[in-house]
Amino acid sequence: MASTVWRALAVRHRTSFNPTVGTRGENGGGAADVFVSYSRADEPFVRRLDAALRERGLDPWVDWEDIPPTADWLARVHAGIDAARAFVAVLSPEQVASEVCREELGRASAANKRLVPILHRQIDRALAPRELLVPNWIFFRDGDDFDGAVAQL
């Protein structure tokens, strides 16, 4: 069912313009260090994380930068995952419940990407995808040492 929903979303967001032209080359890929998978509910935190990673010389793939208007967003997401060296999942209740985030995780797992779960907000572990329960988590909750957690990434 998730793949059916995903395909329907992809069809709905396609345009007649060239869907692949954008900031990271022809296919939306490039040399990103990490692909960041997150829920829109966590965007302020992800913007802070993005800035911190860039300050440390890393190049995160984030959708607000790497999917330009009119682009085929699904193709860009797939290319971003494929090109990145690692896949960071920003765990929160909304991220764990998101079909799109699960689809991204499935793509990353199938490509044998290094999975890096970071806990931003407490989740019900029973609802989390198994792939994200295996690696040790890096804690980015309110009250955790943000800079120390970034250094662990």
Topology:
Elements lengths: L1 H12 L20 E4 L5 H13 L4 E2 L1 H4 L6 H11 L2 E6 L1 H5 L1 H12 L3 E6 L18 E2 L6 H7 L1
Could you explain how this protein is built, in words?
The chain is of the alpha/beta class and 153 residues long. It contains seven helices and five strands. It has a five-stranded parallel β-sheet, sandwiched between helices. It starts with a helix and ends with a helix. The N terminus is likely disordered.
In total, the number of strands is 5
Tell me about the biggest sheet?
5 strands, parallel
Report the structural category.
Answer: alpha/beta
In whole angstroms, the N-to-C terminal distance is: 33 Å
Indicate the low-confidence ranges by residue numbers: 1-29
Strands ordered across the widest β-sheet? 2-1-3-4-5
What sequence of helices (H) and strands (E) makes up the elements?
HEHEHHEHHEEH
The share of residues in extended strands comes to 5-15%
Question: How many helices does DSSP assign?
Answer: 7
Helix percentage: 40-55%
Radius of gyration from the CA trace? Answer: 15 Å
Rounded mean pLDDT is 83
Oligomer: single chain
| Broad shape | globular
How is this structure best summarized?
The chain has 153 residues and is an alpha/beta fold. It has helices spanning 2-13, 43-55, 63-66, 73-83, 93-97, 99-110, 146-152, and strands spanning 34-37, 60-61, 86-91, 114-119, 138-139.
Features:
single chain, alpha/beta, globular, disordered N terminus
